[in-house]
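Researcher: Structure prediction, please.
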Amino acid sequence: MPSFKDSAELQQYMGALYDEAKGDDEVAPKIKASGLAIQFRYTEPDGIVTILANRPPTQPDAYFDVVWGELTDVKPDVTMSMKADVAHQFWHGSVNLMAALTRRQIVAKGPIPKIIKLLPAITPMYDMYPRILREQGREDLVLKK
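Model: Predicted structure follows.
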């Protein structure tokens, strides 16, 4: 059974993670320093989200903007395509990025070495995501380790 019943639920829970990350003083400055526009394209259910670390944020409490939906005015530096379930497992720290790229569970376009360099920066998000799910009453989505 898929982790998310529809695109709205995907955006609700993944969106909460990205929204917290964009203002987190540990995670966000490192993502911002990359200067990348990173787009995640999810399927089953569908969703597109872009992290705009390549421009100044529009919100005063954020290091970068996070925008859901197709953007016509932005060409992402990196595009990561995967099933929503793979993303769900990834944000629990249960998916090895290199293995997922090799197995084509995640398909990446763009400067992959730059994304790999970001892995240490996003590690705190592996704790954020299950906590956010619990806070939103979705203990059933938290993966058991």
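Model: The chain has six helices and five strands.
Researcher: Thanks, that helps.
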